[in-house]
Structures are given as C-alpha cells and as structure tokens.
Design brief:
- The structure is a homodimer.
- Chain A is built from six helices and two strands; from the N terminus they run ααββαααα.
- By secondary structure, chain A is mainly α.
- The first copy, chain A, has two domains: about 70 residues, Multidrug-efflux Transporter Regulator, Chain: A, Domain 2 (Orthogonal Bundle); about 60 residues.
- Chain A has a two-stranded antiparallel sheet with strand order 1-2.
- In chain A, helix 1 packs across helix 3 and helix 3 crosses helix 4.
- Chain A is elongated.
- Chains A and B meet through helix 3, helix 4, helix 5 and helix 6 of A and helix 3, helix 4, helix 5 and helix 6 of B.
- The structure holds a DNA duplex.
DNA sequence: CTTGACTCTGTACCACGGTACAGGGTGTAG
DNA sequence: CTACACCCTGTACCGTGGTACAGAGTCAAG
C-alpha cells in the first residue's frame, strides 16, 4: 500500500470503526451480498473501500432498527439500486408495519395472560393452589 | 413388546400424536432435560411413557405460548418438582411480563417510525424524493 | 530488522428450537 | 414369511445474525 495518491486508504478496519460495526461483520455482509465485493489492493489483496460503503453500512443499521431482516435489507438495497418507484418502498414499509403490528398483538395477548395470572397468584403458600401452575398444567383459556 | 398386561403401551409416537408434537421433538426435549429419561422396554429398547408425559408436553407447550423459552420452561418444571413456593412462580411470571413489555415497547417504537415514514411517502414517483429511502440513508431521528 | 497492528482465507462455533436424515432393529397384520 | 410401520442412535442441517478462531501474509514505526 505505497500508493500515496490516496491520502487515506479506507481499509476494512477503518470503515468498521466509522460505521460502528466489527470487521468480521463487514466480511459477513459481503458474503451475504449486502455489500458488493470491494476493489482490492493488487499487491496485498487488502479490501479497499470508498465512503459510500460507510453509508451503506449505516443504511443496513437503520433498516435493522426498523425491524427489517438482513434478507429484507438486501432487497431494499437492491430496490434502491434498481429502477424501483417510491410506491415499492412504501409497500415494503407497510408490509413491515403489518408484520410489526402482528407481533405486537401476539405479545399483547401474552402480556394479558401473564398479567391475569400474576394478579391471581397470592404469592405466598405452596404450589397446590398456585393459579400460574394450574394454568400451565391445565390451560388458561383464550387470553386474547 | 409382547407384555399384554399393559393394554396400551405409550410409545413415543403415541404420546407425540397425543400432545401434538413430533417424535423428534420429544427426543430433543429429552436431550435438553425437559423430559426425564423414560423407562425402556427391556427387549426392544423402546421408550415407554406414562400419561404424565403427555401432561408435561402440554405444560411445555403452554409455557411456550406464554413466551417462556425452553430454558425457562425447564426451570419452571424444576420449580414444580421441587419445594418452590407460589411466590417464586409469581416472580417468574412477573419477570416474563417485564420482558414481554420491553419487547412491546421496542416494537411500538418501530411501528411509529414505520407509520410516520409510510404516511410521509407519496407512493408515486421516483426514489429521489422518497422519505423512506431518505430515512434509511440519513437517519430518522428518534422515533420513540 | 524486528515488532506489533492490521489484513487475508477458511472454517468452526454461539443461541434458539427444532427437523431430517442414515442405517440399523422391532412389532404386527395379512 | 413378507411387508410395512414404527422405533433406535448418532449426526448433520435449517434460519438468523453474527463471532471467534487458526495460520498466514502485509504494513508502518522505531
């Protein structure tokens, strides 16, 4: 890496630190096609990145925060690169929204069931009369 | 299995069907200590179960429905078998309730963010002005 | 010239909750 | 007696999102 035309060569370690992810994670994303194969330094074989890879890593991180899986994130990245319309993106967002809401509903049913059981439990005494155990042993009806 | 003293021997396949799980799942639970090692038919080596194993499998299924992991479920089963009090059970339920509520909160933040983005998206036109893409590319503030 | 930090490839491993074989033996009905 | 369903053990594999090596090469500073 003696080519000083590039004042700062973006090695994998540098973009990892910039994007706040691990080096192994970047290589993993590359294998999983979330990142394109980067240019290589011809002499060392080291990966050479541009600033855009940092943005791409941040894109991935934000998609994760929005509940998208890596597979879905890859599709979003592909959409961005291709000839998608804004409507396609909105569809993806709405599908994910539905997904999230279903998961919230599932959790809410569980929350209600647990709340009911906790409140029914005296919290003292043996297990013979414990409503939580009774529910686990014999079912607890429909909690939704 | 020629011992006809037992009119119906509960083989692994039978309790699997009764409990609505797969045969492999039962052997997996046994390895994971959720089920005790059953008696064996001396001549064939086949596992021999009693009705109580079906209840135990249903216990596991209900604990799953309440959001307990297999590890936690194993602990619940151990509590049931040991000298636990009702209060211990209630604690487990309340801890799980907190866990579930945290997960709901996380999902709600995501829901809000996705909703905001979906509503902001015109749904037509190219990607240049898509707020969803903009959010993924540049962050979307705190969505909670 | 050596040392230490960095990078490379390849592979194995983690949790989670199972599922799917392969290659045997067993049990029962016709 | 044969066919077929069932059971056994052991091991590998699935998806999800990485993490952790080993063993080698490279780069920059002192």
């Amino acid at each position: 890496m003696r080519d000083s035309a590039q004042t700062t060569t973006l090695t994998i370690g540098k973009i990892a630190r910039s994007a706040g992810v691990g080096v192994e994670t970047i290589r993993f994303y590359e294998r999983e096609k979330l990142l394109p194969e980067p240019a290589r330094d011809p002499s060392s074989g080291y990966r050479r990145y541009t600033e855009s890879t940092i943005s791409r890593l941040q894109f991935i991180a934000r998609a994760k925060e929005l509940g998208f899986t890596l597979r879905e994130t890859r599709e979003l990245l592909d959409l961005r690169a291709g000839s998608a319309t804004c409507g396609t993106l909105r569809s993806r967002a709405e599908e994910k929204l539905d997904d999230i809401r279903r998961r919230i509903q599932d959790l809410r049913r569980i929350e209600q069931a647990l709340l009911t059981l906790s409140e029914a439990c005296p919290g003292a005494g043996g297990l013979e009369a414990c409503p939580i155990l009774a529910a686990l042993e014999g079912g607890f009806g429909d909690a939704g």
